[in-house]
Write a structure and sequence with these properties.
single chain; about 120 residues; mainly beta; 7-stranded mixed beta sheet
């Protein structure tokens, strides 16, 4: 069974940067898309960024120009580079991998941005 292992969360001051990583622990084939969701305190879960197998990307308006999603197909890993972080970016960030058959999720990693 494939599991996704996330890393890179933590506490950072406003204006700082963090880089999240999400790697598949087992073999996973025909990944259509990878991405990140987040859920802040008292907020609904929202899609932060996604990247397709062809490299097309999609971002939430709130993070455009500050966050960058990328993937390493050989390592079955997706990254989220987060720059110019704001307190409103504070949330649990969860990655996902989507294939034609299923979607699998990471356990979530906490990102806290202090003002």
């Amino acid at each position: 069974q494939v599991q996704l292992v996330e890393s890179g969360g933590g506490l950072v001051q406003a204006g700082g940067s963090l880089r999240l990583s999400c790697a598949a622990s087992g073999s996973i084939f025909s990944i259509n898309a990878m991405g990140w969701y987040r859920q802040g305190p008292g907020k609904q879960r929202e899609l932060v960024a996604a990247i397709t197998s062809g490299g097309n990307t999609n971002y939430a308006d709130s993070v455009k120009g500050r966050f960058t999603i990328s993937r390493d197909n050989a390592k079955n890993t997706v990254y989220l580079q987060m720059d110019s972080l704001k307190p409103e970016d504070t949330a649990v960030y969860s990655c996902y991998f989507e294939t034609a058959s299923f979607v699998t999720w990471g356990q979530g990693t906490q990102v806290t941005v202090s003002s």
